[in-house]
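Forgive a beginner's question, but would it be possible to get any protein sequence you like and the C-alpha cells describing how it folds?
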Amino acid sequence: MDWYPVFWNLRGSAVLVVGGGKVAARKTKALLRSGAAVSVAAERLGDELRHELEAGRIVHLAGAYTGQVLSAQRLVVAATDDTELNHRVAREAREAGIPVNVVDDPQHCDFILPAIVDRSPLLIAISSGGRAPMLARHVKTWLEARLPHSLAAVAELMGRLRGRVKKRFSTVSARRAFWERMLDGFELTQIDADRVRDAWRSVKQDAGMAMPSVALVGAGPGDPSLLTLKALQLIQGCDVVLYDALVSKPILDLVRPEAERVFVGKRAGGVHTPQAEIERRMIAYARRGLRVVRLKGGDPMIFGRGGEEIQALTQASIPFEVVPGISAANGCAAYAGIPLTHREHAHTLVITSGCAHPDGSEHDWTALAKPQHTLVFYMPLHELRRICAQLAAHGLPTDWPAALVIDGTQPSQRVLRGTLVSLPQLAEEVGVAAPAILMVGQVTALTEQLHSHGTPSVIKDDAQERREAVYAML
C-alpha cells in the first residue's frame, strides 16, 4: 500500500488552491463541499471560479503566485498548467510545513485527492495512487450507478441509533450482531431507512437478537477467488475463526482483522489438534456470545468431519449453519483440466478416503476397480502404493491412467501424471507432500499425451485455454 487513506476534517480550515482553470475549479468545489475555507491564487479566474467568487464562497488572491500566500494555510493544492510553477508551489509548501497536492503529479504530492462516491455521511474514496486515474474514475462511475442515494439517510439514521443500541446491548459482539442482522441478506440497493427503523422496533421486543452462533464454512480448495459469497460474508463478520491446515493464507487474509484466529489443524506426523478439543473450543466460544466460524478446506461435509461437529453442536444446543464450499475434487479437477465425468470414459464418480480405516476395514476394491469409474482419493499419499496395487489386483490394467494433483488451485499447483504402476514411484522420486488428491480413470489422460512413465508438470499460463479445450469435448 503506497498511500495511507485518511479522511481529513477540513471544516473551517484555510486551504489554498493555486490555479484558475477548470482543474482548479473541480478541486475547489470538492473542498467547498467539505466545509473548507478556500482561497484561490491565480492571475485570472475561469468562469466556474468567477461564479464561486461572486457567490462569496471563495477568496481570490489575484496576481502572480508568491510564497507569501502560503501563510496560515492548512493544505495547498497546485492545479496550474505550468509544471515548473506547480513544483515551486510544492517545494515552498513543504518548506513551510504545509502538506501539498500537485494535480496529476503524485511524485510531488504529500497527499492525493481520490475519486469520491458521496452518500454523506457515507463516503467511498477510490484511488490508483496516480497510476491509473481513468480506472479509478471508471470504478467511481460503476459504484455511482449502483449505490442508491437512500444510503445517506440510512447512515444518518444508524448514527442516531448508535447510542440507544449501545445501551441496549452491553457487549461489542452483541452490538455488531444486531447491526449485521439488520443488514444481512440484503443487497445495498435494497437497504433503506425503513429497514433500519423496523430493526430498531424489533430490538425493543427481542433484546436477545440471537444469531446462529457457529457457522461451518467451506473455504474451497485454496484459490481465494473460489470462495463463496456467503463464506466471504461470514469470515468478514465473525468474532473468532477456527481454521484447518488446508485453509490457504490468501483466504485467511480475508478474515476480519479484529477476529481472533485459532489454528486447529491436523497434519499427518505433525501438529494434531484432537477432534474433541476442536469441538470443545467451538462450543466454548459460542457460549460466550461470539460469532464463530469453523473454517475448513474444501467442503465441510466431505471428509471435513462436519457431521461430527454438527452432532456436538446439537448436543450442546448451539445454533449452527453450514456453508458448502467447492470441494477439493471439483476444484483440483477443474484446475488440472480433468473432467470428472465423460460420456465416453466415466459414467460413475466415486469420492473416497485414501487413509487407512481406523477400524482396519478395507475398501471394496472390486467395486472400485471398474473401467467406467472416475475415482478420487482424498489424503492418499501414505497409502498411495497400496491403493494403486489393490486397484490393479482387482481388475484395472496396470497401465491404467492416474494423476496426483498437488497444492490444487493454488499458484504452486503441480499435476503428476502416470499409471497405476508408475505413479507411486514417480511420486517418491519427485518428493510429493500434502495436500494432494489422487484421481484414477481414463479422464485423467484426456488433457495431455502421457509420457510412458508419467510427467510432473506445473500449472502453466495457458492452463485456462487447455481446460476450455478439454471441456469443449464434453
In short: The chain has four domains: 14-113, 150-205, 214-325, 329-471. The chain has a mean pLDDT of 87. The chain is about 35% helix and 20% strand. The longest helix spans residues 150-168.
